[in-house]
Design a protein that fits this description.
The structure is a single chain. The longest helix is centred in the C-terminal third of the chain and has 21 residues. It contains ten helices and seven strands. By secondary structure, it is α+β, with helices and mostly antiparallel strands. Helix 1 packs across helix 3 and helix 6 crosses helix 7. About 40% of the residues lie in helices and about 10% in strands. The chain starts with a helix and ends with a strand. It folds into two domains: about 55 residues, no CATH class; about 200 residues, no CATH class.
C-alpha cells in the first residue's frame, strides 16, 4: 500500500511540474492529466528523491529513538496467510510493531519481546521457523495483575496464542488446530502474588509437546527506577517538567529499554530459560 501512495505522489508531482513549465496555450497540463487518468507513466524530475515523495504521500514518520527499528525481527509462519494465498514466506514481526501495540517502548516491552524470542529459539532450534497457532502459553498470573496482561499482549501478537478473545477458527479450526487461536494464552484465574523474577512464562509447542519456561529479572535493569525517577514521571505526565528535565527523562527511559536489548543474551540471571522434558 505504501508503494501505491508513493506512485500516486510521483504522478501528481509530474503533472504539477508539467503544468507549471508549459506555455498557457500548449495544452501540456491537459495532456499530462489525461496520461495520469489513463494510467500512463508520467516523467518525474530525477531530483525528486524517494524521501521527498514519501513525505508528500504522508509517509514521513520516523522514530526519535533509532534503536526501536534496529531490533532484528522474529520470523514466523502464518498458516492463515498461506491458505488464503496472501504469503507463502516467513513473515517478519518487528519490535516497532510491538511498541505501537503497547503504546511505548520500555523495559517491560523489550522484556516481553525478548521472552518471546528466547522461548521460540528454544522450541524451534537450528533455524526452524516457528508457526503461529502451534504455540500455547501459560501466563504467570492474572491478566490484570502487575504487567502480566501487557506482556501477554505482545506475546500474543507474535505467537498468535490468544486468550478467550481470540479467533475460534471457524471451519478452518475444525479441520486443523493450527487455525484455532482462542484459549492458547491462559492466564491464572486469581493473582499469584509472585515477584517478577519468579514469574515464569511457559511456552508449549503443540505439535511436539516440547515445553520451555522463561523468567525475566527486570530488577537488574539500569538506570534504576528510583523514587526520584518515579516522581519525575508524575511531573512529566502532568506537563510540569522543564525542557532540561524532559530531555534527561527521555534518556533515562530509553536507556532502560536499550539495556534489555543489549544485555539479554550476555548478562547472567537476566533471562532464564528452562527446557522441560
Amino acid at each position: 500500500m505504501k508503494s501505491v501512495y508513493v506512485l500516486l505522489a510521483l504522478l501528481m508531482v509530474a503533472v504539477l511540474s508539467l503544468a507549471a513549465c508549459a506555455p498557457a496555450d500548449s495544452g501540456a497540463s491537459v495532456d499530462a492529466a489525461e496520461e495520469v487518468q489513463a494510467g500512463e507513466p508520467a516523467l518525474v524530475d530525477e531530483e525528486v528523491g524517494a524521501e521527498e515523495a514519501a513525505a508528500e504521500a504522508g509517509d514521513g514518520f520516523a522514530w526519535d529513538e533509532a534503536y526501536i527499528t534496529e531490533v532484528p525481527p522474529i520470523l514466523m509462519r502464518e498458516p492463515y496467510f498461506e491458505i488464503f494465498g496472501q504469503s507463502q514466506e516467513p513473515v517478519p514481526y518487528y519490535y516497532e510493531e510491538a511498541v505501537k501495540l503497547a503504546g511505548h517502548s520500555c523495559g517491560a516491552t523489550t522484556g516481553a519481546w525478548t521472552i518471546t524470542r528466547k522461548a521460540l529459539e528454544a522450541l524451534y532450534p537450528d533455524g526452524e521457523i516457528p508457526v503461529r497457532g502451534q504455540i500455547a502459553v501459560e501466563a504467570p498470573g492474572a491478566e490484570d495483575e502487575w504487567f502480566v496482561g501487557v506482556f501477554g499482549e505482545i506475546i500474543t501478537f507474535v505467537t498468535g496464542a490468544a486468550p478467550k478473545t481470540g479467533f475460534i477458527g471457524a471451519e478452518f479450526g475444525k479441520a486443523n488446530d493450527l487455525f484455532v487461536r482462542q484459549n492458547k494464552m491462559v492466564y491464572s484465574e486469581e493473582p499469584t502474588g509472585e515477584q517478577p523474577p519468579m514469574r515464569e512464562w511457559i511456552f508449549t509447542r503443540l505439535d511436539t509437546g516440547a515445553r520451555v519456561g522463561v523468567r525475566f529479572n527486570l530488577a537488574v535493569i539500569t538506570p534504576l527506577a528510583t523514587e526520584e525517577r518515579q516522581a519525575m514521571g508524575v511531573k512529566m505526565a502532568m506537563g510540569q517538567a522543564t525542557p532540561e528535565e524532559a530531555a534527561d527523562y527521555y534518556q533515562y527511559w530509553n536507556d532502560r529499554a536499550r539495556f534489555v536489548l543489549e544485555n539479554a543474551d550476555t548478562l547472567d540471571g537476566f533471562f532464564t530459560v528452562t527446557v522441560y522434558e
